Structure formats: C-alpha cells, structure tokens
C-alpha cells in the first residue's frame, strides 16, 4: 500500500550478497516433505492431520476396488496412533529391480513418486496417483510400523520420521492372513502437540468409503477413553452397505417430501474404461447437497465429473419437455434443476487429474463428456419409463424457473427503492449499477467513516452502509432481541437475500460484502461481531465466497517525498528499518479511525481494487457432508456465546500461544 516513487527494484536488500554454489541446497529422500508439509498435505492444521489417515485408507480402498480386498480394519489407539489393515495382496517385499539392496516396501515408504499406480497395469483405477501418499505419511509420522502378510509369510519394518529404524524382518509363516497393515502416529514436531485424531471425523470417513464401494466391509474400533461425553461415535462397528450410494441417500432423505416418489439411482460404464455411480433425489422440505468422489477420494470442490452430471440432468429434462411439447422448457437452467438437489456422485476413471495433492477438485477434462454420456442415457430411460415422475420433475423445474425470473425482475427494480426503505442515521448510499456482478457493499462504523467512504468509493459499483457502533452479539442475544435490532434489520434489508433457511443466493444484491472497520482492537471487535452474525444467520453467504474483510492501514510513514502505510506495529518497524534505514526523521502518523483518513488515502489503501488488500472469510471445512461444521459452531459458541466461563477456559488454555497482544 505504498505510494513511494522511484523504487529501485535492483537495490541491495537485507540478505547477504555473497551467493555461490555452496548456497544451493539439494533436499533428498523425504526431507522436502518435512521441510514443506503444506505442499503435500495442505498445511499442518487439523484438516492436514486427518489427511494422513485418508492417504493410507485410500491405498486400502484401491485394493478393494481392484477386487483384491474385501475387508479393511481401522483401529484408533489410546496413544493417538492409527492402524489401517486390509486383506489385499500386500505391498511387495522382494528386492526392487532398480535398487538391488532395498526391498520394494522400503522404496515405497521412503521415496516420493514411487508405487504401482502409474502404469495402469496393477490398478485400473486408483485414488493414489502421485506416488507420494504413504511416503508422505511416513515422513510426517513420529513412528510408522508396517506389516505385510504375503505368500503365507509375515514381514515387518519400522520407520521414524521417514527413515527406516529396522531392516525388513521375516516374522515367519502365517496362515489365514494376507494384506498390509500400516500403523502410525503423526509427528508433534510437525503438527504440534495439541492436535489429535477425532473419532467422529474418522468414523464419518470410514462410512463414506463403505458407501462408495459396496464390495468392502470396514471394521471400526476406537479406544473408549478417546470418546468424550456426548460423542455418539461407537467404540466398534462393522460398516457395510450392499446397495452403495442408494443406502446413503435413503438414509439422508428419510421422511422427506420428494418431487419424485423414487430417487434416480444407477451405475454405468464409462467410455474408455471406468464406471460411474449416482443416487439423486429432489427434496422439497430441506436443503440439498452434492457430494462427489473420484476413485473414492472426496472432491468437495467439485470438478469436471459434477459438470457432466449437471449437463446430463439439464439436457435430459429439456429434451423430455421438447418431446412432450412443452414450449416453456427453454427457460429452464441448471439452477432450476439442481438448486435443491440431493446427490451423491462417484466415478472411477483412469489417470484422473486433480488440482493439488489434496485432490479436492477433479480437473480431468474428459470426465465431463464421459459422465454426461453415461448418465444421460440412463436418465432418458428413467424419464420415459415413468411419465408421471417425469412430469412432476418438469413441473418442479418450470416453477423454479418462473420464480427465478420473477425475482430477477423484482431485483432490478428493488435497488431503486432500497434507499427509501432504510431509515438509518447514516443510511445506505447505493451504487448505480443495476446488476449484481462486480458490485460491493462496504459496511463501515459510524457516520464519520461512512462520509469518507462515500467520497472514496466508485459510485458505479460500490455502496456504503454505515452502522452505529458495535452491533448486537447474536450468539448471546435472545431471538426476540435479535429480530428487533434495527441495525441488523437494516443490514438484512440492504442485502436483500434473507436469513437462515430463507436465504436465497439469487436475491443477494451485491457480489462482495466488505466489512471495513478501524485497524485497532475496537475495529477488530466490530468485525468479529459482524462475522458472528453472518455465520449464524447467512452461512451460505460465506460458503459462496461473498464475505470479505478490508485491511486498512494503522500508520502513515512519511519521509521527504516518500509515503508508505503500515497495517500494524511490526510492519511499521520493518518499513522504518528497511526503507528509511532507521532514520529518526520519519514522520509517523497513527490513524485514529477510518474517518480521520482523507478520501484519497482511504481509496488508495483500502477501497481501490488495484491497490487494496481484502481477506476472504472462509469456513475451515469443505462442503463434503461427511465433514460437518460441528467444530466451527462449537468454537463460535464458546467464544461468542452466553457462557463467559467457556471463554475464560479457552483463554487459559491458549494464552501461552499468544505472541503479540494488543490491549
């Protein structure tokens, strides 16, 4: 956010200018994984911690899907370790042709990009494609113990932080046992000492795998001491779903009012190899969801296979309407058919391409076409085979299309009257654009900041809504008090999208909602209260990526003709030391609030898209229904709810981790 002129991009920095061949590091073995775990498991947080379990479980599932395993045992130990065992073929233990003195097992466990899933000869389809999964687990584990029962003989080798701690040991003959067992405990040096496997999360993961492949039985066990009060996770369970995805769908839509009396469920072969399975229903009395998977790997961010499913449903329904002579079907869009759909989609394809090692989105371009082709044929037969069902679904889609068109028309005229409806002391100053695309609403504190923001804004697409001080804490207030709060009522009315179960994405009047508060403790408190409100009342608004935090500066630093801005004390001290070489003639000004900034300063630092910094507010979990928001909801309730003793307990527990306290 600096405005300094004549930057010298080649000026000498703070690092040493002595740069030679000796400074070049070559990371060998699994050292890159321990040095940069985020590149392989997405970070060192709880999600990454549980990703280790998913990597090992995916390998066992690949054996099951390939037809070589029928059972997987998952055991969560009292010491926090996890053991996953299958009755598949077992990892090869003979010497590797390329490394004559090392077994294939040790190569797989200690070498990145090694495995049997590259050529397609051993596994027709698989979730592990990069050859880094189990080796990464080994690298990020305090210890890892591998047992392989193969050819009626048992072998064992132990590892610690990616390195072997024993030779491959022949444990002697075994009977009635085959497959691979991997037991490990994530390394606290990487993940810290606070994280631990959550039984409920692992159990949901196990159930999802069993749904995805009906030929596998998963046996779950968990140390009783790990199950906290109120946790409904069983100590042991045998998980098997003979009807696959349909079993899960029926469980989810039990007692629901449906558009069609029976779900659209089935499976089909994919052109070029692979298969697809789906189970879809249209409930009218509850919110829907789409869970998609590729080779049993969850893809919470969707991808090309979901696009193929959407195309098949929309095109199939419009084609049926055309055959039935319904001319209104031309106005049907994907939104009308899929808005409240409950769907589970699972594909098995060769050589899938994912975005990143954590595989949250399928990127294989051919998946769209082959999934659409396979599902479209079955959907056409399903519709033509039950005309009454097809007519019900068509009527439902047409009704939604008419409602969507009506809301769009109301929305275009609604913006003109919004200013008249709001009666705030500092009322809404709307933007000129009639559509939603590219528009932004800045929520600011007080008339002073609102006045500066109104002058700094781009009138075409930026609106400003000032609020009077700190809003109500909805997490601790009674429902009647929340409903009667004028500030919140005006905010909801300005957004136009409703709250809770009545939230409608298509009615949201702005593309971005930007919370712009002072860069101090009071401003952070107001921003926290607003985020709490959106989390409780408009969670889908956060899910859809509409909520942002502005990052205004706290300091202005001026020396001669150079002016820069700093967001906090640490950045101020760094800029003084690096840019001004510690000069004592730097004029340091602290902004008391946004209202103290001139319109030009506020625009350059906080509102101009070309120079500003915005932080997108995200929920920590993906949209996969098997990974819920219980943890996030519990944390918000503890920190913002009615019981101060829970906040005090949290502060006591985490006080030692605070390094920079601003009071």
CATH class of the largest domain: Alpha Beta
Flag low-confidence runs. Answer: 116-131, 422-426, 623-627
For the record, the count of structural domains works out to: 4
Would you identify the CATH architecture of the largest domain? 2-Layer Sandwich
Largest sheet: 9 strands, mixed
CATH superfamily name of the largest domain?
A: Histidine kinase-like ATPase, C-terminal domain
Rg, Å, rounded: 29 Å
User: In percent terms, what proportion of residues is strand?
Assistant: 15-25%
| CATH fold descriptor of the largest domain | Heat Shock Protein 90
| Net shape | globular
- Structural class computed from helices and strand pairing: alpha+beta
Instruction: Give the averaged pLDDT, no decimals.
Output: 84
Number of strands: 22
Count every helix, treating DSSP H or I runs of 4 or more residues as helices. Answer: 21
N-end to C-end Cα span: 25 Å
Give the proportion of residues in helices.
25-40%
Which descriptors would you attach to this protein?
663 residues, alpha+beta, Heat Shock Protein 90, 4 domains, nine-stranded mixed β-sheet, five-stranded mixed β-sheet
Write the layout of secondary structure elements.
Elements: H1 31-35, H2 38-41, H3 46-65, E1 71-76, E2 82-86, H4 104-110, H5 133-139, E3 141-150, E4 153-160, E5 163-164, E6 169-173, E7 179-186, H6 188-191, H7 199-212, E8 217-222, E9 236-239, H8 245-252, E10 264-269, E11 275-281, E12 289-294, E13 297-298, H9 304-323, H10 334-338, E14 342-348, H11 365-385, H12 387-421, E15 440-445, H13 446-456, E16 462-467, H14 479-484, H15 486-495, E17 512-516, H16 521-537, H17 539-543, E18 547-550, E19 555-559, E20 562-566, H18 569-578, E21 587-590, H19 599-607, E22 614-616, H20 630-640, H21 644-654
Parallel strand pairs: 1-8, 12-14, 15-16, 15-17, 17-18
Antiparallel strand pairs: 1-2, 2-7, 3-4, 3-7, 4-5, 4-6, 8-9, 10-11, 11-14, 12-13, 18-22, 19-20, 19-21
């Amino acid at each position: 956010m600096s405005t300094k002129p004549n930057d010298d991009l080649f000026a000498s920095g703070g690092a040493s200018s002595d740069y030679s061949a000796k400074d070049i590091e070559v990371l060998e073995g699994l050292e890159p994984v321990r040095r940069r775990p985020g590149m392989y498991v997405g970070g060192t947080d709880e999600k990454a911690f549980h990703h280790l379990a998913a990597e090992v479980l995916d390998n066992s599932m690949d054996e099951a899907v390939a037809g070589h395993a029928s059972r997987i045992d998952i055991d969560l130990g009292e010491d926090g370790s996890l053991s996953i065992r299958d009755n598949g073929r077992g990892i090869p233990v003979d010497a590797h042709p390329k490394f004559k003195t090392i077994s294939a097992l040790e190569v797989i466990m200690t070498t990145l990009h090694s495995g049997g899933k590259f050529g397609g000869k051993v596994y027709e389809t698989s979730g592990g494609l990069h050859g880094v999964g189990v080796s990464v687990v080994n690298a990020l584990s305090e210890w890892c113990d591998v047992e392989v029962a193969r050819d009626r003989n048992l072998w064992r080798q132990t590892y610690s932080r990616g390195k072997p701690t024993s030779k491959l040991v022949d444990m002697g003959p075994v009977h009635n046992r085959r497959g691979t067992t991997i037991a490990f405990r994530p390394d606290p040096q990487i993940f810290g000492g606070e994280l631990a496997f959550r039984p409920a999360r692992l159990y949901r993961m196990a159930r999802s795998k069993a749904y995805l492949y009906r030929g596998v039985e998963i046996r779950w066990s968990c140390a009783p001491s790990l199950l906290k009060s109120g946790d409904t996770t069983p100590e042991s369970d045998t998980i098997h779903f003979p009807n696959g995805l349909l079993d899960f769908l029926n469980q989810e839509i039990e007692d629901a009012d449906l558009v069609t009396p029976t779900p659209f469920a089935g499976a089909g072969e994919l052109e070029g190899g692979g298969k697809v399975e789906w189970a879809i229903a249209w409930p009218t009395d509850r919110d829907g969801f789409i869970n998609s998977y590729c080779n049993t790997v969850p893809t919470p961010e969707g991808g090309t296979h979901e696009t193929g499913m959407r195309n098949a449903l929309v095109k199939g329904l419009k084609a049926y309407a055309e055959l039935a002579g319904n001319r209104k079907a031309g106005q049907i869009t994907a939104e009308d058919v899929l808005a409240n759909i409950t769907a589970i989609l699972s594909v098995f394809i060769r050589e899938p391409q994912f975005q990143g090692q954590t595989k949250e989105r399928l990127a294989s371009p051919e998946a769209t076409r082959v999934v659409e082709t396979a599902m479209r044929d079955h959907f056409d037969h399903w519709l033509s085979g039950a005309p009454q069902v097809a007519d019900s679904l068509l009527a439902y889609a047409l009704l939604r299309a008419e409602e969507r068109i009506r809301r769009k028309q109301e929305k275009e005229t609604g913006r003109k009257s919004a200013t008249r409806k709001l009666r705030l002391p500092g009322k809404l100053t709307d933007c000129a654009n009639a559509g939603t695309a590219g528009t932004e609403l800045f929520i600011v504190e007080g008339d002073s900041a609102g006045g500066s923001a109104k002058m700094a804004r781009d009138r075409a697409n930026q609106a400003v809504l000032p609020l009077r001080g700190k809003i109500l804490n909805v997490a601790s207030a009674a429902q009647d008090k929340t409903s009667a709060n004028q500030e919140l009522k005006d905010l909801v009315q300005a957004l136009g999208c409703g709250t809770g179960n009545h939230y409608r994405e298509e009615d949201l009047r702005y593309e971005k909602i930007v919370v712009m508060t002072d860069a101090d403790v009071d401003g952070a408190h107001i921003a926290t209260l607003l985020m709490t409100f959106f989390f409780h009342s408009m969670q889908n608004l956060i899910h859809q990526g509409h909520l942002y935090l502005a990052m205004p500066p706290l300091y202005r630093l001026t020396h001669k003709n150079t002016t820069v801005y700093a967001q906090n004390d640490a950045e101020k001290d760094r800029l003084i030391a690096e840019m001004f070489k510690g000069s004592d003639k730097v004029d340091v000004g602290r902004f008391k609030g946004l209202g103290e900034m001139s319109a030009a300063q506020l625009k350059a630092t906080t509102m101009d898209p070309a120079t500003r910094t915005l932080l997108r507010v995200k929920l920590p979990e993906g949209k996969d229904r098997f990974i819920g928001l219980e943890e996030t909801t519990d944390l918000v309730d503890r920190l913002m709810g009615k019981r101060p003793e829970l906040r005090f307990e949290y502060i006591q527990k985490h006080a030692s981790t605070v390094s920079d306290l601003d009071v």
